[in-house]
């Protein structure tokens, strides 16, 4: 199987992120805390830190790969940047100026900024002010008609893609004078902060999980109508493809290469989408074995299985030990997968290992090196 390690950390995991050397993981166990675990030599996970500053559920975590900083956002409308000083993690205040929950967060490729999506129809682009020792934000306002569900940075560190529950995907310029520098090949040289580059009206329902391809030439996002959208030549005249599938909706996506995208969501099983030589995208298969076994079942049993997955009928106890896939009842995750994170975060590089977490409290590490049918696309 593609799943090489399965760990159970809590009843439910809201989001997770990895340290630069992959020796530690930060996750939210569906409360106002962030737990940091470190892997021991015996492949056991030991909880070494608990970050306590938020008052409500932590909705987003991102761990910078260069500066080793953790940024967290929460439904309490606050955000903190955590710096490790000796053995403790010290929070730095972030001025978000939000009146609704913060929903998602991501560091920019150069890690001099991060973006926060919120329920206030606003995107906060935050940068550090050395004089005051805090992070301040510039707001992209009056562009979204509903909550911003996900954000994704273009490799050029300037363009930012967002999705919203108004069904639209948008791309903005986030150029900040004094923080960013003009470089060749970054698109419109006269683009200002908050300028909308493109608005995509492909979905007529909630939109989630936008991501850029490693080159930045293509982006993908998903709708709550069991569809995934691929957009080439993002700009005034984009080229779009829509792929519909029969299963439950997705919540997040990840580009492994220019021709492979992994989608995760309510079906509890990662889905593989690939592009052929002509650039036409389509669904290939599920990564887990459970779906292949269920495909030959009768329609009534398929409905019952989907109904059970939707309501997350997990039948397994909590354990911090590694869980063998063979012990699970036909699959890895037992509830909605809400987060997918690459384990190789070099800008522009291909990804063969990634992790997923879900409402079942599991964190699963996937490795595609032994998946022969995918190697040609990677």
UniProtKB/TrEMBL annotation:
Matching entries from PANTHER family are given as:
ACTIN-RELATED PROTEIN 2/3 COMPLEX SUBUNIT 1, ACTIN-RELATED PROTEIN 2_3 COMPLEX SUBUNIT
Q: What does this protein do?
A: Functions as component of the Arp2/3 complex which is involved in regulation of actin polymerization and together with an activating nucleation-promoting factor (NPF) mediates the formation of branched actin networks.
Keywords for this protein: Actin-binding, Cytoplasm, Cytoskeleton, Repeat, WD repeat
Query: What protein family is recorded?
Result: Belongs to the WD repeat ARPC1 family.
Q: Which GO terms describe its cellular component?
A: Arp2/3 protein complex
Summarize the subunit comment: Component of the Arp2/3 complex composed of ARP2, ARP3, ARPC1/p41-ARC, ARPC2/p34-ARC, ARPC3/p21-ARC, ARPC4/p20-ARC and ARPC5/p16-ARC.
Name the major location.
cytoplasm
Which InterPro entries does the entry mention? Apc4-like_WD40_dom (IPR024977), ARPC1 (IPR017383), WD40/YVTN_repeat-like_dom_sf (IPR015943), WD40_repeat_dom_sf (IPR036322), WD40_rpt (IPR001680)
Q: Where are the WD repeats?
A: 51-92, 141-173
Q: Does the keyword Cytoplasm apply?
A: yes
* Cell compartments where the protein resides: Cytoplasm, Cytoskeleton
Which Gene Ontology MF annotations are present? Answer: actin filament binding
Q: Which Pfam families match?
A: ANAPC4_WD40, WD40
Boundaries of each Anaphase-promoting complex subunit 4-like WD40 domain copy?
Answer: 17-107
Q: Which PROSITE patterns does the UniProt record give?
A: WD_REPEATS_2 (PS50082), WD_REPEATS_REGION (PS50294)
Q: Does the keyword Isomerase apply?
A: no
Q: What is this protein called?
A: Actin-related protein 2/3 complex subunit
Q: Which processes are annotated in GO (biological process)?
A: Arp2/3 complex-mediated actin nucleation
